[in-house]
Amino acid sequence: SRRRLLGTAGAVGAAGLVVGGAGGALAAEAVRETPAELTGVGAKAVPFHGKHQSGIADSAQAHGHLLAFDLASGADRRSAAALLRRWSATAAELMAGEAPKGDDTGIALDAGPSSLTVTFGFGRTFFDRTGLASKRPAALEPLPAFTGDALDAKRGEGDLWVQIGADDPLVAFHALRVLQKQAGDAARPRWQMNGFNRAPGATAKPMTGRNLMGQIDGTNNPKPSDPDFAARVFVPDDSGDWMAGGSYAVVRRIRMLLDSWDHLSLERQEKVIGRRKSDGAPLSGGTETTPVDLNKFGADGSLAIAGDAHVRVAAPESNRGAAMLRRAFSFHDGYRDDGAPDAGLLFVAWQADPRRGFVPVQRKLDRGDGLSRFLSHESSGLFAVPGGCAPGEYVGQRLLE
Ligand code: HEM
Where is the Dyp-type peroxidase N-terminal domain (predicted)? Predict the structure, then answer.
């Protein structure tokens, strides 16, 4: 037992790491065990199995890896199905805090699941590669070009997409490494991006996170308790197609032009968004969670929330109800040749149909939102993320079997 292992002085370190003396069988046993005494951040587990995949409606973790794979030439529907079966089984183990069966690297030894989530999606090209073009959802039609786009095709799209999030960076990297190794000969990485959010416990009470412009970001997201949450985020159950219970992810690497942004006065920065920086309260009054009043005028007769304020232009009320769930990670990849930080938002937007979510909203933002002048969209991907699976099944089974 683990207790015995820990009791064998010198054989196993306090956190379960084998430091010598223990035989191979004991070492393997130690590797498979989740430390029973874990509390706090490491102990939290998100279920892998369920109606929807994880990593969508649950809150974004402190560390994220987004990556896309392209299927190897010669790959077909059967090899893709085998890969999704392998990946699903492993994701279920890792999310439960268990080491993967077979060869493990030991990177996440000692740690609990740490809210790990692994989410799988299919890009447009996947369906051609696997002879499944007739099953490609209409909602996967390419996103339109926007005037503010400066997209790097090499860092965009891809046959398969994997989103990994965890509150511990070693747990997140471990999942990334295990899944990449398991891709084997079937698929190879196309691009990968790393992001972060505030660490759990960093603030006195749980709060909406901040982005790298310093704003409280995520306040007016659809909430799982909203009556229309499922309709906005998930493909309806009665759609009868393999995407029932799934969602569409729009992934954009949005660099922030931080040097220009930081030159704005606080007042200008707040006007650009339409919310106060300190506490996220709308400029129409109240606290962070007070509904935004887009029709309120100030004493001077001007709109409290400016005509080009980001929250006005992006709001469902301004876009015939178009809405999405934003679940982003910040990124910082060092400095560019011009000295500017290569930093911003790995924007991930979830919706039942991007043609009624991201596309109309981004069209409007692109035409005249005060924030867009401080952003550069540098890569883009659109992925069909199927519903979750039951134990014994794998993600995408209804498409691939
Ligand atoms: C709201 C920042 C890009 C859609 C907000 C808010 C902030 C913000 C601070 C107010 C707080 C909140 O309700 O979450 C940013 C930054 C971006 C960015 C820094 C880029 C780096 C986008 C993009 C879209 C978008 C590309 C969609 C195409 C929205 C929506 C809201 C929102 C729908 C809520 C509006 C409402 O109903 O009040 N954003 N945003 N944002 N943003 Fe963005």
Answer: 53-197
